[in-house]
UniProtKB/TrEMBL annotation:
Source organism, top-level taxon: Bacteria
Originating organism: Ramlibacter tataouinensis (strain ATCC BAA-407 / DSM 14655 / LMG 21543 / TTB310)
Pfam families assigned: FAA_hydrolase
Name of the protein: Candidate 2-keto-4-pentenoate hydratase/2-oxohepta-3-ene-1,7-dioic acid hydratase
GO MF annotations, alphabetized: catalytic activity; metal ion binding
Length: 203
């Protein structure tokens, strides 16, 4: 039986150095005028969950979506991680990370979820992203703004994660894009394969 999260899934913004540096000039502008000091989180709501093999429908008028290959740390309790799972944090393309991204990230089906949760050290893992069989991105987790243990500790400073909650490590930039008809495959030697096909939503 395919895994689906039992708790809340929290995404993390600006945790890849490439993404952080690309947006660094905007961080000094109003209203913030400084880089964030704490992790910037958002929620992937339950309506976004798409198991391995499921078709993901793109709403009318959406030409393409950003592919967000990432790892989810599944919590055993407030401080311990049960294991990691592949996740595809889909998003509508957008220019600003300084507003709540719910309308870009929480459309129906916009979180591909890997088959299994497995014990793993995130810093040693990589994800290969293929679209229609073509390698488009390789994501590594050994040089994050906040390493997994540090991210957990910093999040624990302002909220408590519960059993079954999932904390995503963030998405590298630039992100590949895909459109209706494309088959998107994420593969990690340690965690297996997550595959979904994008389709046009029926009118």
């Amino acid at each position: 039986m395919s895994y689906l999260p039992r708790g809340t899934v929290y995404g993390t913004l600006l945790n890849f150095r490439s993404e952080f540096e690309a947006l660094r000039p905007q961080m000094d502008q109003a209203p913030y005028k400084a880089p964030p000091r704490a992790p910037v989180l958002y929620v992937k709501t339950a309506n976004t969950f798409s198991p391995h093999g499921a078709a993901i429908a793109l709403p009318p008028g959406v030409a393409d979506v950003e592919i967000g290959a990432t790892l989810g740390m599944v919590m055993k309790n407030a401080t311990e991680v049960a294991g990691c799972v592949l996740m595809n944090d889909l998003s509508l393309p957008h220019a600003s990370f300084f507003r709540p991204p719910v309308k870009f990230k929480c459309l129906d089906g916009f979180l591909g979820v890997g088959l299994q949760v497995r014990p793993a050290d995130p810093a040693t893992l990589r994800i290969e992203v293929r679209i229609n069989g073509e390698l488009r991105q390789t994501v590594r987790f050994d040089a994050l703004v906040r390493a997994p243990a540090n991210l957990l500790a910093d999040v624990a400073g302002f909220m408590t994660l519960g059993e079954g909650d999932v904390l995503l490590l963030g998405c590298d930039a630039p992100r590949p894009r895909a459109r209706a008809g494309d088959r998107v495959e994420l593969h990690s030697p340690a965690l297996g394969t997550l595959s979904n096909t994008l389709v046009a939503q029926a009118s």
